[in-house]
Amino acid sequence: MNNDFVPTLTPIVLLDLSLLTMLIFVAFTMLKSRHLFAVAMLSGIYSLLSAAFFVSLDAVDVAFTEAAVGAGISSVLMLGAMLLTSRREKPVISNRAPVALAVVFAVGSVLFYATIDMPAFGDPNAPANVSIGQEYVERTPDEIAVPNIVTAVLASYRGFDTLGETMVIFTAGVAVMLLLGAGSVRGGKPVDDVPVGDPKDGE
Amino acid sequence: MEHLILRVTTKILFAPILLFALYVQFHGDYGPGGGFQAGVIFSVAFILHALCFGLDATKRALPQNFLVVGMVVGFMLYAGTGVATMILGGNLLGYDALAPASTHHAGQHLGILLVEFGVGMAVASTMLTIFYHFAGREPEIDPKHW
Predict the structure, then answer these.
(1) Which residues are CB-contacts of A152 (< 8 A; sequence separation ≥ 6)?
(2) Residue A86's pLDDT band (cuts 50, 70, 90)
(3) Looking at the complex, does the CB of residue A12 fall below 8 Å from at least one CB of chain B?
(4) What CATH number does residue A70 fall under?
(5) Which of B1, B11, B44, B141 is the most exposed place for a label (fewest CB within 10 A)?
């Protein structure tokens, strides 16, 4: 494989790095926070930052989905789920923290070791860019004739996959209806007991 | 009259959000977007309505029964397109069978439009169903709980 691609530190790469730094910062803030409302909001911020990162990677369709689903619907559903439980997470006192830390460091170092074999960021000769991806780009204008290749792959070339995805979403809706809806124990009626959390917690 | 600003903003934004969802839905062939994103945006408009005017008002505007129909019809539209292409002599979801004589792949365009519309309908109905069921369990939130 003739690999003469040398990655350079362009402004775009700097932007990517700063976005990734912010993602890590948000993730650690979520880990430390015990206030579930703040955690739900931070998960929305995390999705929005991921969407910005995907835009910078030129994956606008993925970014659009992440912004709509991750930052939009998920936050609302998280808040809805939070209302059914307490407002604050109980502090976890664990004496197994050193073991967990050791496992995390071991797995992390293996993953870092694996990245050495990966193609450089933006390498035009990376396997993702040369084999099937290139074929879709070349054949879509002749075979499907829609300008957005992502749509051509999603709805036509991989139409069967998308049928399965739609089925998954349909199944999720049916499952929620069965668990919480008219067929459930409470018959879909509002819960009239008092919220679990202590009112003082929310202040 | 609580939350006057939120109510006015929601009333102004509701229709444009629905319009944007339709744009994302039917412009998916040409730009970013498609059924999944459009369905989510469509349901977000109604979730915004529910957050401002209460779930009961939203359920009067768009009853749960409609959503069940939307879920089923959306999925059946997708699967039905696949079955239709098989009946017309092609493979499952091989859209060229929809317009075999076309020289500019009209069958592909029609097929993608139909399945994306099915996806949008199924996603919007499912998201709203999940939201209705989660939000419908809890009495009104006491502001001091925030």
Answers:
(1) A136, A140, A144, A146, B108, B112
(2) confident
(3) no
(4) 1.20.120.1200
(5) B1
